[in-house]
Structure prediction request, 111 residues.
Amino acid sequence: MTDYDHDFHNPAPEPTPTVILAVPHPAELNPRGITITCPNCRAHRDWLLLNVGPQVFVRCRCAHEWREHDLEAADVTAARGDIGDEREWESFEELYRGLGFDGLFRYTYLN
Prediction:
C-alpha cells in the first residue's frame, strides 16, 4: 500500500527548542500589592524568574518552584532590564546550580 500523504521531497522541519528566559531577581515581588513568599521556606525575596512562553515560574533558593499566575512575561522582561549577559545552559540542573537555585543556598539571601 502506498502512503500518498507523505512528502518525501519536503521532510517535516526539526522542532524548534523552547527558549526559556531565566532572570535572577534579588528584590521582593509585589504583583497586585501582595508580597510573594515561598510556600516551602517562607522566603520573600531573591528569586529566579523563569519565562516559558506566556507562563512565568518563580524559583526560590530552596529549589521550590511554582507557576506564578500574578506575573506575566512583561514582568520578567522588565526585571531583566538592560542586562546584556546571556548564557545558554545544557540543562535545567546546570542552570539552577550555576545561578545558585539548586537548593544549596536554601535559607540564605545572596543579594
In short: The longest helix spans residues 73-80.
